[in-house]
Amino acid sequence: KKLSSEQVRDMFLDFFHDKHHHTIKHSASLVPKNDPSLLWINSGVATMKRYFDGEVVPKNRRITSSQKSLRTNDIENVGRTRRHQTMFEMLGNFSVGDYFRDQAIAWACDLLMNPNYFGWDPNRLYVTAYPKDHDTKRDWIKGGIPKDHIVNMKSNFWDVGEGPCGPDTEIFYDRGPKFDNLKPGDPEDYPGGENNRWLEVWDIVLSQFNHEPDGSYKPLPRKNIDTGMGLERVVSVFQNAPTNFETDLFLPIIHATEKLSDNRKYVPSMTNRDTIAFKVIADHIRAVTFAINDGALPSNVGRGYVIRRLIRRATVMGRRLGIDHPFLYKLVPVVGKIMQHPYPEVYKNRKYLEKVIHSEEVSFDATLADGLKLLKSVLADVKKSHKKIIPGDVAFKLYDTYGFPLQLTAEYAHEQKLDVDKKGFKVGMKAQQERARKARGNKQAMGIQNDLLVDVKTPSKYVGYHQLHVNGAKIT
Ligand code: ATP
Questions:
Q1: pLDDT, tens digit, for every residue of 96-148?
Q2: Cβ(52) to ligand 1 under 6 A?
Q3: Could you tell me if 212 and 345 lie in one domain?
Q4: What is the ipTM of this complex?
Q5: pLDDT tens digit sequence for 63-93
Q6: Nearest CA to ligand 1 atom 31
Q7: Residue nearest to atom 21 of ligand 1 (CA)
Q8: What is the DSSP string of 55-116?
Q9: Number of structural domains, the chain?
Q10: Where is the Alanyl-transfer RNA synthetases family profile domain (predicted)?
Q11: 374, 390, 424 — which closes off a domain?
């Protein structure tokens, strides 16, 4: 079955609204309201903390939404993996002390496998569960997941310190052997490991304990469900796309960029440098357009800094495609058109958004030119002194002050048969991160994620929201 992104989004929301009496909550702004612990809204549940911590009781305890979410920790993944965006939409269904595991899993099975909805073949579906969570495993089997498609995963426990927590269970779609990137027998070859073949599409969190200040876990009087399904990933399955980018959510942006480029053509690939540039541009302009529309502005701090970095990275990628003038702003109406159905305000505000982005591009052009001047003089000095290496602190300055990614500096250096001191660059980066961390001070519980998300330059895996979803999860 082939579905458009609009059909997938509506199908999910209608399923929970029409069939299971959830209230549809329109996506909240990417900019958190009254929540200083969070830089960006990074999941559906992040907009509902006051329901989940019991501060407010919603009129209807069943809620569903498609929430715009932004994760700075995934920026470096964009273009490198098949499944990450900076901004994505997270479909979710929520039970604020209403239904629990058995219904959540039964409905998930219905949505995923019933031909009236997704209609996916159960043989393609794998789920992970916390080893001791036998109820969850039983419910999946009852719903039609083959018994040998259930993978025990110790890391499936959602816990961010004090507050509600509990096991979670993740759903993977098997994209088939074509997507295998590991050899048989590789220890990472399992759903949740490093093999792209299994695409994580949905996560269901069963919050049933309170993590007490003394470290103990008390059962919650009312249990909650919180789920997150990546719209772009599901759409990639329905559109048989090799990555999230070859879908109706991104292809129009990519095609518009082709026209602006120096005769480059987009070819689906995981390694082609132009392809990666097209993907990064499509991703970043979308994130930036939405972030600005939601009230953020480019600047040197916090959210504004993230926007500035995204525009700069996309500009540099544009250079790679032979575009040496402001161009990102021209993609704004394309983004607006794609998202017109759920978010008509973006297309409506396009003139304003174009203006903000254009002026940022113009000022970055000047910065880039200054950076290039510095780089050229350093290259000349290094050559004159018969050295072979650009010092790490210079590479870091180019990065930090002039927005030159290390890769770009390295490319200029290689043209002159020189190298870059990457270690020295990392030292500069580490010191800067340490300073930023100190400046932020201590944060607790939900705030943990902020520490990880605030630094746009940390190429880390996301370990905040699901703190225990760390690399190297083992099958037990
Ligand atoms: P991954 O390990 O693949 O990065 P995750 O464990 O960080 O995913 P969750 O925090 O469980 O993801 O988020 C719920 C769902 O949101 C995921 O199952 C996925 O479908 C989607 N999702 C998460 N991060 C991204 C992203 N950067 N881009 C697109 N979709 C995402």
A1: 999 999 999 999 999 999 999 999 999 999 999 999 999 999 999 999 999 99
A2: no
A3: no
A4: 0.98
A5: 999 999 999 999 989 999 999 999 999 999 9
A6: 230
A7: 230
A8: SS--SSSEEEEEEEEE-GGGGGGTTTSSS--SEEEEEEEEESSS--HHHHHHHHHHHHH-TT
A9: 2
A10: 3-476
A11: 374
